[in-house]
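Quick one, T. Sequence first:
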Amino acid sequence: AMAELSGSSKSSRLRELQVQTRTYFGEARRLQALLDYSKQQKDGALAVLQQAHDEEMAAVQQQLQVLRSQSAALDDELGRWMDENDQLRDLVQGLERRLASRAPKEREAKAKERAQREAWQADVERRLRAEHHQHIKEVQEQQLMQVEEEQRALEAERARAKRLELQSKKSAAALAEAQAQLRRLEGKEPKPHTSAEAAAPGGAATPAVAAN
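Structure tokens:
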């Protein structure tokens, strides 16, 4: 009777260990699937980030090329205005030489007219230069804003990738713990008893325990 009770207890413990083993096997499979999913999410996020960054950088480079072309056109226009201004200055100087022999009043009137003309020319040149510099400043500010937006988007995606990586590490740690617990359970599992080992001291064999 004691042998039967002992065999029944061991059989119950064996069933408990088998249930725990199946439970830990299921948990290990679930953690492995979670780890694989986290890795796929991380790789996918990084790939999408890199592709978006490359596309946006290409668009920025194209915009920069267009802005450079516009800046070159403005430089050409400014140079043309300056050439015209030089021609007008030469013309004025020629007229001044012609009027040098005329009456003082007429020379004063011409001098005043010349001063007004030169002031107008200087104002036009100053306004053109100011508009050109303002345009260049606006282009630079726009480029800087685009670069800063790119940096913020990149930092956000990197933070998301770090979170995914941390989740993957936690899943891997949980999986390793489950596998270690499973190995410990497998090491504690008792070996099945034969009918000879379960024999009574009097020589009579005890009935074999039915397997589940």
